[in-house]
Design goal:
The structure holds 2 protein chains of 2 kinds.
Chain A (H helix, E strand, L loop, with lengths): L1 H15 L8 E4 L4 E3 L10 E6 L4 H21 L2 E6 L9 H7 L5 E4 L4 H5 L7 E5 L5 E6 L5 H13 L1
Parallel strand pairs in A: 3-4, 4-5
Antiparallel strand pairs in A: 1-2, 1-5, 3-6, 6-7
Chain B lengths: L1 H23 L4 E13 L14 E13 L2 E10 L10 E15 L2 E8 L1 E3 L5 E3 L1 E2 L4 E2 L2 E8 L5 E15 L2 E16 H5 L8 E13 L13 E13 L2 E10 L19 E12 L2 E11 L30 H5 L9 E13 L11 E13 L2 E2 L10 E2 L5 E17 L4 E13 H4 L7 E14 L4 E12 L6 E10 L3 E9 L11 E11 L2 E10 L2 E5 L2 E5 L2 E11 L1
The chains are: A alpha/beta, B mainly beta.
């Protein structure tokens, strides 16, 4: 009964607040426009990670998660959005990099830093975990090997 | 005065909105972030680190953002008390350096105050902030963005550029006006075309500037100068082809270094192409650039190298992060012009193969080269002052920069990750003038980077670098050990040793110890030791950083 109540209230929240990401349009590597405030993962958690092709810890973090991403998606339904802050010098390096490294993430380009400023990102990597209602419930600046475990634990807590 | 007016308007808005919102129970969201760096200096005559009178430097930045539905507003408070050594001294004091109000209604977006923007690849207009370098050329004015139908937008803007910071924003005197439009043909034609294999995006821009700064009595200088660009972005399956052409009419600048570029009336031109193919585990990418006389500022008098730039000249090189490769002989954009090429090959050797190992191996090869354009000087400095002519992609044999680098990345087992790098640089300091050597420099660098993960919390990383060169300061060695205790702590010790310097007295060690604590979005770090003089570059834009010795404290946080 309790569970039913929770899932009802959960869906209620989802319908009331359609995500709390800023109302900013970004393009994916294929040139399609994505409006983040309208982005939804059907009530499942979302990870937003800011990175750049010139940032070593960022690539280490996303490559480490990439090894486990299939399991994370299967267990929690999570979707990872990797927001590249590469500027016009290096933004053409994004697509070759993500393909060569076989990432399955939704990769968005933020060459003008609009989303970066709106989400108060000082430096990369900066990782946000959003619950099914689109609320940021955890974030972490920097990456050290092992940090992905903390993110995973927070993610599992959300879906329990 | 104008700054403060807008600030009060913002406060008033937030406050009045709060009153209304109590009825609507729609409070909006307030968020922000802060970044501070403090440095306590010590004199060190051996490495040429000076002790400034104020002994202590401090740079601080705090952003406060407000969002309520389609409305957004924000300010940035900045403090330079005193400005950190090596940072542009035209930034000093404390006050508000950036503020804006923005809203979106239906298909229209409006921004008032400061904004950052970029047209295409940025050659014709790029207003951006690179805080580490002390670059901020944000526009202060009004911007409109209109999307009449899905897949099409038009942007119009007008404003003055941020120039300096003296207890608040100081704008340049020139006015910048810009128009930009883009069509995504697939999105326009129909939604069913969204998954079409051929994708086409085209765009164009026009930017003009007005300034009356230069009162040179000899030349009749144009007060209004226009620049325009067209661009396309094609994609077919896994092949991508982008290009942009930019042109600027006569825009003479003074040049004390070179009479052949002093107040010339030649038009500026730029062409940029990028062709790439990428698929799972493999990518090949090729870029080419022809750029001539494309210095594009909102003033026509001499200012600092990164001041009041309207256009950005994209660098066709990879931005390196390993210390010696990034800060000794880095690529810097040549404002006179350059013809440059870059090729990238990335691939993954499959896992469980002989070469790939258990987890596979990633390889990235990058080659970049740039030359001075072939210029035919026409000897017309007494009349039309075009000075010279060039042809597209016709380069001289004067090499400006060449970089070949190879990166091999491999996970050996669950605990060990290995990263091997090789760099080969040819660096024309006579043209670039950043290493103070003024001749050709040939350098090779090898980097070995190894991470060992003890368990899910503890790991240690070793990094060794060697640089070999016969020129400038000779050979260097670099070593670093970094211990991390996830998710909160790190400690690193590093040393750079100029063991190959021809001057035996200059064979110095630059030792540094740093540690930090991270808690969510809060990050504290402390650093003590010597920093060598070097060149710090982002996106081909470089700044010389003087040597320093002392204690650095930094803190970043967001809420």
């Amino acid at each position: 009964m309790k569970k039913v109540f929770f899932s009802i209230s959960f869906y209620f929240i989802v319908f009331v607040i359609v995500g709390q990401l800023p109302n900013i349009n970004l393009k994916d590597v294929n040139g399609n426009t994505v409006n983040l405030s309208k982005f939804s993962n059907d009530g499942k958690p979302i990870i937003v990670n800011f990175w750049a092709t010139w940032c070593k810890p960022c690539k280490l973090e996303l490559n480490t998660i990439a090894d486990e991403y299939d399991d994370w998606v299967e267990e929690t339904g999570v979707k990872l959005i990797a927001v590249s802050i590469d500027d016009s010098r290096s933004s053409t390096r994004v697509e070759p990099y993500i393909n060569a490294h076989e990432w399955e993430y939704l990769v968005l380009l933020d060459p003008n830093g609009d989303l970066k400023r709106a989400m108060n990102v000082n430096n990369v990597p900066h990782t946000f975990l959003l619950n099914g209602a689109g609320k940021i419930i955890w974030d972490h600046n920097n990456y050290s090997p092992g940090d992905e475990n903390e993110l995973y634990e927070e993610l599992v807590k959300l879906t329990e | 005065m104008k700054n403060t007016t807008l600030f009060y308007l913002l406060i008033l808005f937030l406050w009045s909105n709060k009153l209304i919102s109590q009825e609507n129970s729609n409070q909006g969201i307030i968020s922000g972030n802060i970044q501070t760096i403090g440095q306590y200096y010590q004199e060190d005559t051996l490495i040429n680190a000076a002790l400034p009178d104020h002994q202590y430097g401090f740079n601080g930045f705090a952003n406060i953002n407000y969002q309520n539905g389609d409305f957004r507003a924000g300010i940035r408070y900045e403090s330079y008390l005193n400005t950190l050594e090596g940072y542009p001294i035209s930034f000093n004091g404390t006050g508000i350096g950036y503020r804006y109000l923005a809203w979106e209604k239906d298909k229209l977006g409006v921004t008032i105050g400061n904004f950052y923007d970029q047209f295409g690849s940025g050659m014709v207009l790029r207003a951006y902030e690179e805080r580490q370098l002390g670059i901020d050329n944000s526009l202060d004015g009004i911007r409109l963005k209109y999307e009449p139908i899905k897949g099409m937008y038009l942007k119009a803007m007008i404003g003055k550029q941020r120039y300096q910071f003296v207890d608040g924003l100081v704008n340049g005197t020139g006015i910048v006006r810009g128009l930009d439009g883009e069509l995504n043909l697939n999105e326009i034609i129909s939604d069913s075309n969204k998954n079409s294999r051929l994708k086409v995006v085209i765009g164009g821009s026009f930017v003009s500037k007005f300034n009356d700064d230069n009162k040179n009595p000899v030349f009749n200088l144009p007060k209004n100068v226009g620049a325009s660009s067209i661009r396309f972005n094609l994609r077919y399956n896994k092949i991508r082809f982008n290009g942009e052409y930019v042109q600027k009419i006569n825009d003479p600048y003074p040049d004390n270094q070179n009479e052949q570029f002093n107040y010339i009336y030649k038009k500026g031109e730029g062409l940029l192409f990028n062709l790439g193919y990428s698929t799972k585990g493999f990518a090949l990418d090729f870029s080419a650039k022809h750029m001539d006389n494309m210095l594009w500022r909102s003033t026509n008098v001499n200012v600092g190298p990164t001041d009041l730039l309207i256009g950005y000249l994209p660098a066709l090189t990879k931005q390196h992060t390993y210390n010696l490769a990034a800060t000794l002989y880095p690529y810097a954009t040549n404002f006179y012009g350059e013809i440059a090429y870059q090729a990238d090959l990335l691939f993954k050797i499959p896992k469980k193969s002989i070469l790939g190992g258990k987890y596979g191996t990633s390889v990235a090869i990058n080659f970049a080269t740039s030359y001075t354009p072939k210029r035919k000087f026409v000897n017309d400095m007494e009349n039309s002052r075009n000075s010279y002519s060039t042809k597209f992609f016709s380069s001289s044999d004067s090499l400006l920069f060449q970089d070949l680098n190879i990166e091999i990345k491999r996970k050996i087992n669950k605990k060990v990750k290995l990263n091997l790098n090789y760099f080969n640089f040819k660096f024309n300091d006579n043209a670039v003038k950043v290493a103070n050597y003024y001749k050709m420099i040939y350098a090779q660098i090898v980097v070995l980077d190894l991470t060992y993960q003890f368990n899910r919390y503890h790991s240690i990383r070793f990094e060794t670098q060697g640089m070999w060169t016969q020129q400038d300061k000779g050979n260097w060695a670099f070593g670093q050990i970094e211990y991390t205790f996830s998710p909160h702590w790190y400690l690193a010790i590093l040393d750079q040793y100029n063991y190959g310097n021809n001057n035996i007295e200059k064979r110095l060690h630059y030792g540094l110890i740093s540690g930090g604590y991270i808690d969510g979005s809060h990050r504290f770090s402390l650093q003590f030791g010597k920093q060598r003089a070097g060149v710090f570059c982002v996106g081909g834009v470089c700044r010389a950083v003087p040597a320093s010795n002392g204690l650095t404290f930094s803190f970043t946080s967001s809420f």
